[in-house]
Amino acid sequence: DLDCSHIFDVAFCNSALQWFSDPDRAIAAIFYSLKKPGKLGLACTATPNWSSLFGRIISKVTENKEIKPTFSHWKNPWFHLPTENDYRLFFEKHGFVTVFIDIEHEQTDYSVEEAFNIYLSGAANGYTGKKYYDIEIDDDYIATFNNGVKEEIKRQSKEGRIMVDFNRLYYIGKKEEQ
Question: Is the entire prediction scored with pTM above 0.85?
Fold first, then answer.
């Protein structure tokens, strides 16, 4: 067993916090691993926005009669907090002093294929990962779901382009010398 207590000056966590099954334990371990003074830099998707592109698309896809009954057994796998202040309090309860925190609404114009690949690179696992359902799902369901997402991206695009938007948390915290 490797002892990682107080050995790092900086910890950086990019696009992972939302996937931690036990975020309290993970952030406590990061804090413990840092020297005094040490810093945590973190960026991840935050505060889900169901009016965002993927929120609108998933809402539409999950209304499909082939998907809806099975999707009703889906359990949200992501760790998100409702507000910037909730995130600040979360990190501070683990000992961090907040240096910087911001939730930015980011938008980027992509081709349909690029937008679908962004979905496949992360969100698809959350919506079609077998462990996020309390019933057995098969490869046909996953293919139908993902094909529905691709078709809905195409439908909502204009001239083959679509704006992908989401909220992103940026956080810098420090472990102070005391």
Answer: yes
